[in-house]
Specification:
423 residues; 17 helices; globular
Length: 423
């Protein structure tokens, strides 16, 4: 795990240029060679997808060797779909996921090493030591991911409801419960049906609380042995009671909470800072705050680095994937993408620009993100991490929504995680 102040302590500027040339044969014009196709999968939608398409079109027009095809995939089950496709030989050249994603593919030889095609000036010298470590933290130490954005979960609140009930932004889970109870009870007394709080990412919620409780999601020995600790069991049972009372909701039928929150169906929710641009507040003002903490526990919130991760397809295709990935990270592309994505940049040559500074200083999402700099950490990247993520999500859903005994659900999930981690 790496603290964000290390991740955001950035280094030098760089640039790259991809050029290609045509040829002739005895003065006769030749038919242009077909471009090598590079397939890029992601789950981005709306304005984010439009931004990606714009960058893809500019890259395709900038040279004659490669044609990038971007394909939007469903969010649900995306990582599993990528794994199945890549291991079956039918996967894409690039995906938009996490640096740790490559961990699952390196030892089997599926991961693309961007370092074969990029210089230090293209990437290493432009990011911090922490970001570069996250990009190379694999068994072979090679560059298998290019980090493009930094985000994390923050809290979104309805400002008018905070003011109506004379509430401060909560700093602990207990304070959040009290605030939700006050708002929900007050609004329902006036005939307004509203939910208190919900998280966008069930896994982030569970992992945050584990570490805040002084426990580990995956420990230094690559085991998940803390999931059944009584402190975590008790916290999940506390959540179950709050959900039964109508103040918390683990999963919204719409999936993401940005839509229902914008329609005043929630008092607040916890979601990625990247979700800011997806909220359309209907008759209220958004204010943001830090992730609540376990009272008396360790301060912890999760940092999310999003990256381009590549898969080896052959020299020509791999060179094209690396060329596009490098193009994607250039300031003229990374800056507007971060603005659209509501993210922080890992690149110093972007971070130091006046346009970026103005964007950062005027974004309530970025200000909430920055308020947690001292205790933001990246998730452990190990083989088996995808199974661990799905296991903890299923355990919380089974315990809270299906009503199964919490310890029973966590015991099964822990066993599943440890089996994956031991492979």
């Amino acid at each position: 795990m790496k603290k964000l102040f290390k991740v955001l302590s950035l280094a030098l500027v760089a640039m790259m240029l991809v050029a290609c040339s045509g040829g002739s044969n005895g003065g006769e014009s030749e038919k242009p060679a077909e471009k090598t196709q590079v397939v890029f999968w992601h789950t981005l939608t709306d304005h984010d997808e439009e931004m990606v398409q714009e960058i893809v079109e500019k890259f395709n027009a900038s040279q004659d060797e490669y044609e990038v095809v971007q394909l939007t995939q469903p969010l649900d089950g995306f990582e599993a779909k990528v794994y199945e496709a890549v291991t079956n030989g039918t996967g894409p050249s690039l995906v938009w996921l996490y640096p740790g994603t490559a961990t699952e593919y390196v030892d089997e030889g599926f991961s693309l090493d961007f370092g074969q095609y990029l210089t230090d000036a293209d990437y290493k010298n432009r990011v911090s030591e922490g970001v570069y470590e996250a990009s190379t933290d694999y068994s072979d130490g090679k560059l298998h991911a290019l980090v493009c954005t930094l985000t994390g979960s923050i809290m979104f609140y309805n400002k008018e409801l905070l003011e109506k009930y004379n509430l401060e932004i909560p700093t602990t889970w207990d304070e959040l419960y009290d605030a939700c109870k006050t708002v929900v009870d007050g609004e329902k007394a006036e005939g307004n049906d509203i939910m208190g709080f919900g998280p966008d990412s069930v896994d982030v919620l569970g992992i945050d609380v584990l570490y805040q409780s002084g426990l580990s999601y995956i420990d230094a020995n690559n085991t998940a042995n803390d999931w059944t600790d009584q402190k975590f069991v008790d916290w999940i049972d506390w959540w179950k009671a709050a959900e039964a009372e109508g103040y918390f909701q683990l999963v919204d039928p719409e999936g993401y909470h940005s839509g229902p929150f914008g329609n005043q169906q929630y008092f607040c929710y916890m979601g990625s800072s990247a979700g800011m641009n997806y909220i359309t507040p209907n008759g209220f003002t958004i204010v943001t705050g830090p992730v609540p903490q376990v009272a008396g526990g360790r301060q912890y919130a999760e940092l999310t680095a999003r990256a381009l991760v590549g898969f080896a397809k052959g020299d020509t295709t791999d060179a094209g994937a690396a060329a596009f990935a490098s193009y994607f990270t250039q300031p003229e592309n990374n800056l507007p993408f971060c603005q659209k994505y509501s993210a922080s940049t890992p690149f110093k040559d972007v971070e130091t620009s006046d346009v970026y500074k103005d964007y950062f200083n005027n974004s309530v999402a970025q200000q909430a993100f920055a308020s947690m700099l001292d205790y933001l950490y990246a998730r452990t990247a190990v083989v088996g991490q995808t199974t661990c993520k799905e296991a903890i999500i299923q355990a919380l859903k089974t315990a809270v929504i299906s009503g199964e005994d919490t310890l029973t659900a966590l015991t099964a999930a822990q066993a599943q995680a440890n089996a994956a981690l031991s492979e």
